[in-house]
TrEMBL record:
Pfam families: OsmC. It comes from Rubrivivax rivuli. NCBIfam families: PRK10738.1. Coiled coil: none annotated. This is OsmC family protein. SUPFAM superfamilies: OsmC-like.
Length: 140
């Protein structure tokens, strides 16, 4: 996996990342850090990537189990260390999964498998942060 980050002179602290798959992601800093608040902060993209990674796993696991999953949303909240390096110290992921006849046990198992075996991002962040999960199940 590769990624190239380029500073955008004239933007303050704006950066653009080009991923190895050819996609672009814009990042910026907070105004008090020289940024102009024109895009997500770099650590917000880390949190968003982690949420995307685990949501991907949960949907894929449920689909492979032949469950009728219709929607999956993950709401993440986090805390960071107060001093540098300001690593994540706590992350909570709340899953809202919608499906037709979807058993709660299948959703619980999919979340556990993601966090114990498949989601590289949350497993990596789990080295510095306490990661907790919860879920609610909505019937389609």
């Amino acid at each position: 996996m590769e990624c190239t980050i380029n500073w955008m002179p004239g933007t303050g602290m704006g950066f653009v990342a080009e991923t190895g798959s050819g996609h672009f992601l814009t990042m910026d800093g907070a105004p008090d850090g020289g940024g102009r608040n024109l895009a997500a902060r770099p650590m917000e993209t880390v949190l968003a990537g982690t949420g995307g990674c685990t949501a991907y796993d949960v949907v894929l696991i449920l689909k492979r189990g032949r469950h009728d999953v219709r929607a999956c949303q993950v709401k993440l909240s986090s805390e960071r260390a107060t001093e540098d390096p300001k690593v994540f110290t706590r992350i909570h992921m709340h899953f809202i999964v919608t499906g037709k006849g979807l058993p709660a046990s299948a959703v619980e198992r999919a979340i556990a498998l993601s966090h114990e075996r498949y989601c590289s991002a949350s497993i990596m962040l789990g080295k510095t942060a306490e990661i907790t999960t919860s879920f609610e199940l909505l019937d389609a």
